[in-house]
Write a structure and sequence with these properties.
Structural class: mainly alpha
Number of helices: 5
Number of domains: 2
Distance between the termini: 57 Å
Helix content: 55-70%
Strand content: under 5%
Length: 149
């Protein structure tokens, strides 16, 4: 055990870096506008600043508590990465709901002890939630199912 928590220090510094990069890109490439009349750069700038601030808070707290180095499990990382890649490749030809189910089925074994009933419940709940948010709530033209013949 180390005097400081290296996992949260690394994670916090990563959040600070990504947040500042987004904020700098938004500031340099988009109009900010005013608070009363916000431009297209105000929201990404604000999110970048919030992300960097949360990363700084996480890093400062990690400097005050003990912790261990992260243990890398390549199989877990590979399963999650495979699920994300499959989602990205499947969403256009199959639709949102089959892509979500594919992501869950591929990434769920990374948890270790997950049952088929839990995977099925996740597929149903996340598909229903996605449909409610994107189609019903926001009215976005997202294809839920797309079966090309």
């Amino acid at each position: 055990m180390h005097r400081r928590d290296p996992r949260d220090i690394i994670g916090g510094l990563l959040l600070v870096t990504v947040g500042l990069a987004f904020a700098a890109y938004a500031y340099a490439n988009y109009r900010l506008g005013t608070v009363a009349r916000m431009g297209p750069g105000m929201f990404p700038l604000g999110l970048g600043v919030i992300l960097a601030t949360l990363g700084a808070v996480l890093t400062v707290q990690a400097l005050r508590r003990p912790g261990n180095w992260p243990t890398g499990e390549p199989l877990v990382a590979g399963l999650v990465l495979a699920g994300i890649i499959a989602f990205g490749m499947a969403i256009r030809p199959l639709g949102l709901i089959p892509a979500i189910c594919l992501l869950i089925v591929l990434a769920a074994p990374a948890e270790g002890r997950i049952r088929p009933r839990t995977i099925a419940a996740l597929c149903v709940c996340l598909s229903l939630l996605s449909w409610l948010i994107f189609s019903v709530g926001l009215g976005l033209p997202v294809r839920m199912f797309w079966w090309s013949l």
